[in-house]
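Memo to structure team: turn this sequence into structure tokens by end of day. - J.P.
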Amino acid sequence: MPDRPVVVRPEVPVKIPEGHEALFFVSIPVWVRIVVDNIKETVLCEEPSIALSNTWFGDTMSGELCYSLRTKARRQIVDTAPKPHRVVCPVRILNTTKSQLDVDRFCVHVEYLNIYKGTKRLWTNEVRINFQGEDAVSKIDYAQKQPEYEDADEIISKARTVWKKTLLKKSLGTFKLLTGF
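Reply from structure team:
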């Protein structure tokens, strides 16, 4: 997976009513890593399969440098030919607030994702973003099991960082959050 979080926009802006959820499928380019020893994993080289643009996610004080994905998050799996240099990441966004959530873009911390081999595509474990309000951080969980798609049960690449607990971060961005309007 990339060495920084990725920011993605939905194919069309999505509105999630209070108490509901939406499932997105994000196509992320993989990185190629050449290692000398499988036990110590001495990394000789690491390169992205596609060059990604830099972007900033969050406000000026607590934001972070991320990669911007050119592909859009889709609500369903597109039945096109799978690409060997891309992995599909299921992202479930839950709106636990008392108001509608406008999803304009979101950030995925890919360093916690394993890569699994499916029958047609590469997959990651599922990401769950629990939106708790515009002024609050989101609760983010990374499933610790294989995805429920295409019998993807064989791990072909482990996560860069071992997942230990729930992450509390800003993960959703809207025009209002970014501009203050």
